[in-house]
Every structure is written in structure tokens, then in C-alpha cells.
Amino acid sequence: MSTNPPDLRPDLAPAARVSDRPRRGQPTIGMVSLGCPKALVDSERILTRLRAEGYGISPDYAGADAVIVNTCGFLDSAKAESLDAIGEALTENGKVIVTGCLGAEPDYIRTHHPRILAVTGPHQYEQVLDAVHGAVPPDPDPFVDLLPASGVRLTPRHFSYLKISEGCNHKCRFCIIPAMRGKLASRPAHAVLREAEKLVESGVRELLVISQDTSAYGLDRKHDLHPWKGGEIRSHITDLSRELGRLGAWVRLHYVYPYPHVRNLIPLMADPDNRLLPYLDIPFQHAHPDTLKRMARPAAAAKTLDEIAAWRATCPDLTLRSTFIVGYPGETEAEFQTLLDWLDEAQLDRVGCFKYENVDGARSNTLPDHVPDEVKQDRWDRFMAKAQDISAAKLAARVGTTCQAIVDEVDADAATCRTMADAPEIDGNLFIDDGHETLKPGDIVTVEVDEAGDYDLWGRIV
């Protein structure tokens, strides 16, 4: 049992879990999945395709005939982590195939690691399979190699990420994701819903909806109609959320930009007959209009406060998570103070923060007045102290209340759970340390909160 540290990277997915054990003599592939939940879904799709072709999935380097490293290129520090992971895989195994966001820069990777077998870019599944075939020929046994109905998953059995689109149409100066992953490309609504149904049928209790811009879902398709359940459904986040919320599992929305139509989601979150959780993950990034303009982001922070107040009026239980950047080029002390004041007024429930980093290819690199590292660190410390105070006060107010919680892990000391207000890995936990012995992952229980910390809760089953 461990409490949730305050400096978790908000861009990271949970660590990939491999529970599959290959049969004797089966060609096996290892997977190192880095970066965000969207990359984790890509890893799951690659492994599902490989399992369907008769490959086994190895949980370690030594048991693998080759290793795929799914890389991240979000920040320069993430690129360094990816290069380190590639180097470790080469040392421990020797046969390495690289894919993912950093794979969009093959020359950069090969300069550091010329021994790799192949490099492919993000969501280039066919090229990854071709590289695997070349390194390790398949040897399927149709009587033994059965693919799980839900495919290969790298998350615990009771929750799963559901990717609804690729790419992004925004042109934020600090971000190179659109250059790597392309423009918005939404999946058809009926395809998303069919996948969600299969996941729920396989035992998933929580669906985590992800994309680069969830609010924009279907915009590229002109919100076209698709057949569903004897009728039609529009490729629109409101319609999709409504149908997902009827499947019986918790549904949690991530990466939602605060477009005006987001207000139409709030009544669904307040509807007790719909399982769309009262939770919005919105990357505000900053609050000062000048900083936002330099970021090439919407600069109406004051209007956002009005929108937040309206959302909470409709759904008082709404949890708001966001991420911010401090030390962006040109950020003055006055601009940073505006951000702190805005955070005081907004009273966001869950907050993550990045210290600005240059990223090769980002337009923000050429902006004037870059902030010294020691000033970035000071502002990050002050920002997180403010966020911690807000979190502690909000959680203290929950002592004595009851809530539902989903069980993630059970050990001898306690059951580690999450409330509707907590996403896996990036938010807090609720611990049950009495009467937890019969609980198992995926159980949803009613808990009375009897203790609160800065980020976590403790409670007892009622």
C-alpha cells in the first residue's frame, strides 16, 4: 500500500502488465510501452494482432525472441527516457523494433542506436508486424493459440482505455503531437460502441475515454450518422457519451477541451441512470491571457470560470482535473501570479503541472525571454503547494460522507481503491484497511470516508 505522490507525470499511462504465458516453443515478443494512454492502446492493438498470428507475449527480456519499444516524443525528457529504454532492450535482448511517436524521427533514433532492427512511426501497425515477421517468423498452433475475446490488454482486467480518435487539429506552439500523429481522425461511432460493449462483456467495469481532443470527436466526419441498435447514432461526443453511459460500466472522459458544447455533457453526468462519471479532464495549461496567446491557446480564462460555475450548478458532484505549464517563454511573475489567483478561484479538484521544456520542432522554442530553470522550479513548487492546499481542503470536506469506490488492488494491509473522482495512476486513492480481505479488483463498494490526506482518502465499507 502506498499513498499517491504529488508529482506524478500527468502524461503517463499506467505501467503495462503482461499476464500471458507463452506455450513451449512459441515465438515470443516482449513489449515496452512508454508515454501516454493513447500509446498504451496502440501497444495493445499491436500485441492483439501478434497474438492472432500465433505469437506469445513475454513479460521479460530474457523470454522474448524480440522486443518492441513503443516510444514517447512528447517532451525532450520523454525522448531521453525512450532512448534509454531502447538501449536497455538492446543490452538485455539484442533484437529491438522501435515504434511510436519518437519513431517519427528514425534518423535521430538510429544516430543513438544503430543496431535496432526497424523503426516505425505512431499507429503504423502493419509496418510493426512486417518488422516482427522479419525478425521472428510466426509459428501458430491453431489448436492452442486462442486469442482472448477482448484482445490483449496491458491494464488490469477491470478497467480499459477506449481510444475514440487519432490526431489533433490544434496548433499549440509548445506541442508537436499533431506533427507526429496527424490531424483529427475520428473512429465511426458504431465501431467505438461495439468495442466498448465487448470490453464490458469481458468484465471491464470502467472505460477511460481517450483521444488527443475528445471534445472534437466527429468534427472531421461532419458528425455523420451510423447504424446502432436498430436506429442511428451521430459521431458526436455528446451522443457517444450518452450511449457509452448506458452500457453499465463507469465511463470517464479524458482530454476534453472546454468548447461550448461540453456543457451538454454535464446533465448526463448528473443523471443517476447514466454511468457517465461526473469527471472532466480539461488541459487548461495557463490562465493569463497573454501567456495563452503565446501558447496559441484560447485566451478566455475569465469566461472559463463562468463556465465552470455553470457546470457545478448543474452537477454539484463534478470533479475537474487539469494540467498546466509553468515557466513558459515570456511568463512574467505577474502572469504566474494570475495563474495562482485563477487556481484559487477555480478550485480545481485534481491538478498536474509541467515545467516548460523545449521540444525539437516546437514553435515555442524560438519565442523570446525563456525562463531560467531555477525560476521554473520555484514557480512549480509554489503552484503545487497551492494545488496541494486546495486538494487537502476538498478531501477534508469529504470526511463523514459516503461514496462508491472501485477496487484496484488488494494486499495484506489494505484494498487500494478509487472513487468516481479519481482516474488510475494520475489521481488519488481511497484505502480500506479494515474488512478488505474478501474484496477483489473490480469490485465496486460503498464506503464511508473517515480520514483524509493531501491527495488520498481512507474509509470503511458500509
Automatic annotation (TrEMBL):
Q: InterPro entries of this UniProt entry?
A: Elp3/MiaA/NifB-like_rSAM, Methylthiotransferase, Methylthiotransferase_N, Methylthiotransferase_N_sf, NA-bd_OB-fold, Ribosomal_uS12_MeSTrfase_RimO, rSAM, rSAM_horseshoe
> Region labeled Disordered — which residues?
1-28
Q: Which GO terms describe its cellular component?
A: cytosol; ribosome
Q: Does the keyword Glycosyltransferase apply?
A: no
Residues annotated as binding [4Fe-4S] cluster 1 are C36, C72, C101
**Could you tell me the keywords of this UniProt record?**
4Fe-4S, Cytoplasm, Iron, Iron-sulfur, Metal-binding, Ribonucleoprotein, Ribosomal protein, S-adenosyl-L-methionine, Transferase
Q: Where is the TRAM domain?
A: 396-462
Enzyme Commission no: 2.8.4.4
> GO molecular-function annotation terms?
4 iron, 4 sulfur cluster binding; aspartic acid methylthiotransferase activity; metal ion binding; protein methylthiotransferase activity
Pfam family of this protein, just one? Answer: UPF0004
Reactions mediated catalytically: L-aspartate(89)-[ribosomal protein uS12]-hydrogen + (sulfur carrier)-SH + AH2 + 2 S-adenosyl-L-methionine = 3-methylsulfanyl-L-aspartate(89)-[ribosomal protein uS12]-hydrogen + (sulfur carrier)-H + 5'-deoxyadenosine + L-methionine + A + S-adenosyl-L-homocysteine + 2 H(+)
List residues traversing the bilayer. Answer: none
Keyword Ribonucleoprotein applies: yes
Residues that bind [4Fe-4S] cluster 2, according to the entry?
Answer: C168, C172, C175
Q: SUPFAM superfamilies per the record?
A: Radical SAM enzymes
Q: An example of a Gene Ontology BP annotation on this entry?
A: tRNA modification
Where in the cell?
Cytoplasm
What functional role does this protein have? Answer: Catalyzes the methylthiolation of an aspartic acid residue of ribosomal protein uS12.
Concerning HAMAP family, the annotation shows: MTTase_RimO
User: Which family does the UniProt entry place this protein in?
Assistant: Belongs to the methylthiotransferase family. RimO subfamily.
Q: What is this protein called?
A: Ribosomal protein uS12 methylthiotransferase RimO
Species lineage: Bacteria, Pseudomonadati, Pseudomonadota, Alphaproteobacteria, Rhodobacterales
